[in-house]
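#lab-general

N.A. 3:47 PM
ok so I finally got the sequence cleaned up, no stray characters, all 92 residues accounted for. can someone with queue access submit it? mine expired

B.Y. 3:52 PM
send it over

N.A. 3:53 PM
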Amino acid sequence: MFVNSNPRWKGRRISRVKSAFVAACKRADIEDYTPHTLHHTCASWMVMEGRSLMEVRDILGYSTVKMTERYAHLAPENLVDAVSSIEDRLHP
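B.Y. 4:20 PM
back already:
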């Protein structure tokens, strides 16, 4: 739950996150930023830190892993790690 910091409504629940987000961006002088930008940044950072696409899916509430596949390119080293995990079997 988000609460209002405006003295007029201080402590009251924010019912419209989008309008509150727009107001916060305006106060911070941030342009061209949306709540989706935060969502995308969060997913990108998690993948770049090595979290699995399934974890990202579950944390961000996607119904399928297909939605998180767009972030896979951000961690190509995960593919190298996957292949390296069977290297001993390839070269006994």
